[in-house]
């Protein structure tokens, strides 16, 4: 399996601007981290059609829901454009989805992460920063903070394996390509949408093995 990661673009900007006393923290989380993986035994050129639902699966704590507003359609449309650009043909009729070579599923997750710390901590400072007589420091009270994250996952499943059985049981559908774009979630909805859209495009850009001409 091949793995690729897109590092935060702001890190490079921070290095170039090393003369500044403090980095622009807004630049360090300017992009989502994009991870892609695939089954390298698969010839993606053998596929020609795909089925892509018109909604995005939302993973919740209690039950599954579906995101189907205009913003969801924007992300789905971006995936469709990239898939079509690679030579694949989308099947839009749900009654014909069983004829597709692959199924493409989008899932979205958002959560608030809370961190509570306290007690002795060695920290990130040099041990002698405060003087050689200090062995470290501690918080005599709990320290808590929270931050919001989001992730968009794209999965491509090989539907041509349907109907095959192993030991009398129906075979599971293999996921042949996986992509995720994850990072901070901001209060600005337009910014979040741009980050997710950029994440979709980056996922396809770093997956050169996709395409009907491969």
Q: Average pLDDT value? A: 81
String of helices and strands: EHHEEEEHEEEEEEH
**What coarse outline follows from CA principal-axis ratios?**
elongated
Query: For the terminal residues, how far apart are their CA atoms?
Result: 17 Å
Number of helices: 4
Helix content: 10-25%
The low-confidence runs, each spanning 5 or more residues with pLDDT under 50, are 1-25
Largest sheet: 9 strands, mixed
The radius of gyration over CA amounts to 22 Å
Portion of residues in beta strands equals 35-45%
Structural class: alpha/beta
The total strand number stands at: 11
List the helices and strands and how they pair.
Layout: E1 4-5, H1 9-16, H2 25-28, E2 33-38, E3 49-51, E4 56-58, E5 65-67, H3 70-85, E6 89-91, E7 102-121, E8 137-158, E9 165-166, E10 169-170, E11 175-184, H4 189-205
Parallel strand pairs: 3-6, 3-7, 4-7
Antiparallel strand pairs: 1-2, 2-11, 4-5, 7-8, 8-11, 9-10
Helix pairs in contact: 3-4
Give a written overview of the molecule.
With 214 residues, this protein is an alpha/beta fold. The protein is 21% helix and 36% strand. It is built from four helices and eleven strands, in the order E-H-H-E-E-E-E-H-E-E-E-E-E-E-H. It has helices at residues 9-16, 25-28, 70-85, 189-205, and strands at residues 4-5, 33-38, 49-51, 56-58, 65-67, 89-91, 102-121, 137-158, 165-166, 169-170, 175-184. The strands form two sheets. Strands 1, 2, 3, 4, 5, 6, 7, 8 and 11 form a nine-stranded mixed β-sheet that branches. A two-stranded antiparallel ribbon has the order 9-10. A hairpin with a 2-residue loop joins strand 9 and strand 10. The longest helix is centred in the last third of the chain and has 17 residues, at 189-205. It starts with a strand and ends in a 9-residue tail after the last helix. The model is unreliable at 1-25 (pLDDT under 50).
